[in-house]
Records
---
Amino acid sequence: MTLRGKAAIAGIGTFNIGEAPGFSATENMAGAALRAIDDAGLKLSDIDAVFSATSAHAFPTLTICEYLGLRPRFIGGANTGGSSFEMHVLEAAMALEAGLCDAALIAYGSNQRSAGGRLVSMAEAQWQEEPYRPRHPISGYALAASRHMHQFGTTREMLAEVAVSARAWANLNPDAFARGPLTIDDCLSARMVSDPLTSRDCCLVTDGGGALVMVRADRAADLPRKPVYLLGGGMAQWHRSITEMPDLTLTAASESGPRAFAMAGVARDDIDLVMLYDAFTINTILFLEDLGFCPKGEGGRFVQDGRIAPGGALAVNTSGGGLSCMHPGMYGLFLIVEAVQQLRGQAGARQLSDPALALCHGNGGALSSQVTAIFGTEDTL
Amino acid sequence: MTQTTSGGPEQQFKAFLAQGRFMVQRSRSTGRHVFYPRLAIPGSGETDLEWVPASGRGTVYAITVNRKREGSHNVALIDLAEGVRMMSTLPSVETLPIGAPVHARIETLHGEPAVVFYPDTHSPDGGPA
């Protein structure tokens, strides 16, 4: 028994990506859900499972079901921060395969940019951190970056290369929020926020909703869009607070990645698109290492000379990522939206040449929750 | 567990701090320390924890400077000699190299007693505590 290829993404939707004053988080989530259901060629009444996690709702599945008039028979949606949605696709595949539902909606919505212009979080303070006033979430990532630089000789220029590569992809994406020239020097001279991370090492703060619809593989073949199959998924989490992360240069992606690859039965070299949760530039470097795309400690040198930029050897974050496309607080669902667009061949000027396999890696908390999902086209089944 | 005060390990730790004492927990059977204070050693589960005075000696494991318009302060992770790690701050310096030796003091931060650290080479009282 395996979940490999048993379920597929049949519909995707986004709503109000960027800046949408006057819209609530619920409206942005519902708008995306309506689009995803329409994209799948289904009706609201077809949806019988709902998964959601947001920073704006204590009970997001109750909210979205009430708003859209859904009456699901299966409900999921644990909140592991930005990685929640890579987990939800695995949960949805399980529920679909078990016959607990027939059409699953996974939805997210935020209006954090218009509501306050900063990351909104309901997360409780960690008492052992609180006296020292860390700034969440950046302090944890800055501490990890400081340690990576110390241990492996990673430089601010290498971090900047991640941001510059993401911007180059965003410049090919008309839906990206941050477009225009960006140089290494621009990044190095940007305002320092939390050493060694400048404002250019940090993701955007945008509004936006996103949604996915998943069905079993046999049904997906009869729906209008080219199905994108879930081939593998893996989870791992080791800590909540950055104080409890055993080694700040090694994330639990080193476990979630191999678990996902084992289920998918594909090799790392076969991956055509790598979507990494780039809330900060150090993330991209850590996840490239921990997912095995380069040796531990070499991530900074790996990204140099445009290797992950358009035209580079490895396509990473082709939407422009959280750094330059969009980041409405919990970004993980949008990694999958981009992967689906690429695997369908709908990515416009940034379209990769006939990609078959995409890896999406979600991150939540302070490098805490790590979830990897691998998707493929029909040819990979 | 030595019940020097009421409440859970978090409240007991804070009560010690209010008395000017930096205490950590140690398992009687394994000798292993744990921080932040808990009901059991994470992973292995020993509950035979007793409070012991922390040596106060440590080194900087990682550090960042949180820069805001209203002022900057550093946030550091300190590896204690007991083999545990804690978040803290170094109030006497803007930042410090990773690996630098430091020692603990209890000071008032935001109205509450807290463990902070000073570089061994440079401190208001001229050396290790």
---
Amino acid sequence: MKDDNAAYSYPSSRCDLPTTISAATWAICYLGSLWLLKHEMVGGWMRVALVILPVIPFAVFLRHFVSQLRNLDELQRRVHLEALGYAFPLSILFFMTLGLLDVAQILSSKDFSYQLVWSYLPVFYAIGLVLSWRRYR
Amino acid sequence: MTNLLRVLRAERRWSQADVAEHLGVSRQTVNAVETERYEPSLSLAFKISRLFERPIEAIFDDSVTTHARPPGQSAG
């Protein structure tokens, strides 16, 4: 058997194929819906359907993601928990700061619409993952 | 808490990946336990104990970090 003291590699908890495919499907549906709604390509009840459309692939993604989390070992689960521990307060700080900037009239709420702010949340989670993994390297 | 995991693994000429496979955890977890950055759960400690056929206390030593006292013993 070979000796393996090789350099630490980043998470073996990286996304598996079903999780990646469902995330990609959700992203395509979301961007497609956004484009169609922005360009007013459809009207009436179809607009509501387009708003709801990304929910379906996201539900599939969530199912795969949670299933993947359940298959992780104890350290990997701890890393993800700590990542949430970073991401949640960072999200609070982020939204609080945006609110204060709005009150201070430095930044208009039109500049940080709901179309954009959600995209920071996975970034905070990723930052949390990196920070937490570094601790156990 | 210190441990002899690296020594025991070296004695058997196993890689971290080999140990990880036997224990059903990732290689990163084995590495983190070996480098004492992560203290395994009791369940994982038992698995390690069975794998190397040694009692848990022969593999893990918490005398350096423990502050626990037997019941009834005051702080003094």
